[in-house]
């Protein structure tokens, strides 16, 4: 059974999808701990309700981003993670952190990368009159939202859509694809090799999600 550590900053609906998939056996892994940089993040409550250890790591008091990230990683390492999942974790990670966990660090980002890295993805898609929008699961590298793409899910946009509409529709897709990708990783069917996402042949039919 692989050890998973999840990092959050907010509601934790993606965390919940991964908790549910671990409990159902769809993910052959155990979430050993959930870390949040925000002390009142609702995702912490979700973790506690599932009997998962939680830790709050607030950034104040650290000299800089790297110092915070090294202290965070030292705490994470107590749980001997095979995989670290960023699930709505809203802090930029330093190279020291990213390189320490190279190849075992996943993120979900609410856009069809490489479109709209960073914040305010939904409002940008609407403002630009895009016909489609979506979400991307990728390996994390030093480039913000720029690591190798693993899986995307698309939603159609219409002129009457509001930001709230599309946040909800994107999250429905996120809750489908993130547990799926985590299951591939823990089953050894997905890895980062030579800077690219490698998947074995058995997962390719699931690319029909995109
Ligand atoms: C998700 O939609 C995720 O894609 C996004 O935050 C939301 C967290 O929701 N992540 C980012 O924007 C990262 N740059 P959740 O806390 O309910 O899972």
TrEMBL record:
The record's listing under Pfam families reads:
Formyl_trans_N
Cite the position(s) of the site with description Raises pKa of active site His. 145
Alphabetized GO MF terms: phosphoribosylglycinamide formyltransferase activity
Pathway stated in the Swiss-Prot or TrEMBL entry: Purine metabolism; IMP biosynthesis via de novo pathway; N(2)-formyl-N(1)-(5-phospho-D-ribosyl)glycinamide from N(1)-(5-phospho-D-ribosyl)glycinamide (10-formyl THF route): step 1/1
Q: Where is the Formyl transferase N-terminal domain?
A: 2-182
CDD domains per the record?
FMT_core_GART
What this protein catalyses is: N(1)-(5-phospho-beta-D-ribosyl)glycinamide + (6R)-10-formyltetrahydrofolate = N(2)-formyl-N(1)-(5-phospho-beta-D-ribosyl)glycinamide + (6S)-5,6,7,8-tetrahydrofolate + H(+)
Give the InterPro entries listed for this entry. Answer: Formyl_transf_N, Formyl_transf_N_sf, GART, GART_AS
EC code(s) of this entry: 2.1.2.2
Domain of life according to the entry: Bacteria
Binding residues for (6R)-10-formyltetrahydrofolate: 65, 90-93, 107
Q: Which UniProt keywords apply?
A: Purine biosynthesis, Transferase
Q: What class of enzyme is it?
A: transferase
Query: Which residues participate in N(1)-(5-phospho-beta-D-ribosyl)glycinamide binding?
Result: 12-14
**Could you tell me what this protein does?**
Catalyzes the transfer of a formyl group from 10-formyltetrahydrofolate to 5-phospho-ribosyl-glycinamide (GAR), producing 5-phospho-ribosyl-N-formylglycinamide (FGAR) and tetrahydrofolate.
NCBIfam families (UniProt xref): PurN
The record's HAMAP family line, in alphabetical order, gives: PurN
Q: Which family does it belong to?
A: Belongs to the GART family.
Spell out the protein name for this chain.
Phosphoribosylglycinamide formyltransferase
């Amino acid at each position: 059974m692989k050890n998973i550590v999840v990092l959050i900053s907010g509601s934790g609906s993606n965390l919940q999808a991964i908790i549910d998939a671990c409990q159902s056996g769809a993910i052959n892994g155990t979430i050993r701990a959930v870390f949040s940089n925000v002390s009142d993040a609702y995702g912490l409550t979700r973790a506690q309700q599932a009997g998962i250890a939680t830790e709050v790591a607030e950034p104040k008091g650290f000299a800089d981003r790297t110092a915070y990230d090294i202290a965070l990683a030292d705490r994470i390492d107590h749980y001997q993670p095979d995989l670290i999942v960023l699930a709505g974790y809203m802090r930029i990670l330093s190279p020291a952190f990213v390189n320490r966990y190279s190849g075992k660090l996943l993120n979900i980002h609410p856009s069809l990368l490489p479109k709209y890295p960073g914040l305010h993805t939904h409002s940008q898609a609407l403002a630009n009159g895009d016909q489609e929008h979506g979400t991307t699961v990728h390996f994390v590298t030093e480039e913000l939202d720029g690591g190798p793409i693993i899986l995307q899910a698309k939603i159609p946009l219409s002129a009457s859509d509001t930001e709230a509409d599309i946040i909800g529709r994107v999250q429905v897709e996120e809750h489908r694809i993130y547990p799926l990708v985590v299951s591939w990783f823990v089953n050894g069917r997905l890895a980062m090799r030579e800077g690219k996402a490698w998947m074995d042949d058995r997962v390719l039919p699931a690319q029909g999600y995109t």
